[in-house]
Amino acid sequence: MSTRKNRLDANDRKMRLFSRGFIWLFILLTVYPIIFVMQTSFKKTSEFYTNIWGLPKVWAFENYVNAWSIANIGEYILNSLIIVAIVLLVTLFCGALAGYALSRFHIRFAELIMLLILLCTMIPSEGVIMPMYLMISKMKIVGTYTSMILPYIGWGLPMTTYIFRNFFNTLPNELLESARIDGCSETKAFVFIATPLMLPAIATNAIFLFVSWWGELLWATVELASSSMKTIPIGLVSFSAQFGTDWGTLSAAVCIVLIPLVIFFLFVQKYFIGGLTGGAVKG
Question: Is 68 exposed, middle or buried (0-12, 13-18, 19+ CB in 10 A)?
Fold first, then answer.
């Protein structure tokens, strides 16, 4: 018996060591490219070719100044922030309402409706690019904020609605029933009871939406090809085409672009983890 227990303990230790090794390898493969770009952003191009892997011998802080002024990163960030902020607000608001209705209103065929909504996420975006561009052209809004915002909202709504619906399914019925007994309408129950509890679902959706649209390139390339307005990915592609061999300045531009993503994630990470573990309250 003890021999078998010792063998199981040895196998357990081996599995833990393997798991930890795999996790550390994954962390290394994920983090090192970021570290490499950051250290490259402080190197001059001449030093990059002679000292690729090491730390900068002379820290070239002017790369960030050049990236901001020459590459117009500030203008691209502003355009992307305006687009992503509006998309986030509208998508979260509409997705929360739709998820609440499908979860709490006892709508007939709610499961089928949710399935049809999810089927929209299975359509490759490449398959709708041309029809969507023709629609945008007929609306005469090509190259505007609206031409970027409307498709992003449409692409983000199905999964947002699904996550909100699953979250509202975890809320105890007693919370909403007691609100109705006290005279709350469905609108008041949603605003005063459900809304304060759904911060984890909001954070989860917000991170997915922010990451998806902050660096979206395909639709931006098609839609803004003939426009002077550029978002971050289009701006970086244009800058890379002109100054592709200036690795220091290009890396500095990439680091500047990453800053809003990092700040946003740090701000909502607590609620994001809560959303992944499912539900804000326990019945």
Answer: middle
pLDDT digits (tens, 9 = 90+) for 109-156: 888 999 998 888 888 888 888 888 899 999 988 888 999 999 999 999
Residue range 41-71, pLDDT digits in tens:
899 888 888 888 888 888 888 888 888 887 7
Q: Which two tokens stand for residue 166?
A: 């699953």
Give the number of domains in the chain. 2
Classify residue 261: in a domain, yes or no: yes
Name the pTM for this structure: 0.81
C-alpha atoms less than 13 angstroms from C-alpha of 173 in its C-beta half-sphere = 4
173 and 253 inside one domain:
yes
Q: Are 138 and 253 in the same domain?
A: yes
Domain that holds residue 188: 71-276
Which long-range contacts does 149-155 make (Cβ < 8 Å, 24+ apart)?
149/83, 149/86, 149/87, 149/90, 151/219, 151/223, 152/83, 152/87, 152/91, 152/213, 152/216, 152/219, 153/87, 153/90, 153/91, 153/94, 155/125, 155/212
**Segment among 21-25, 104-108, 130-134 with least mean pLDDT:** 104-108
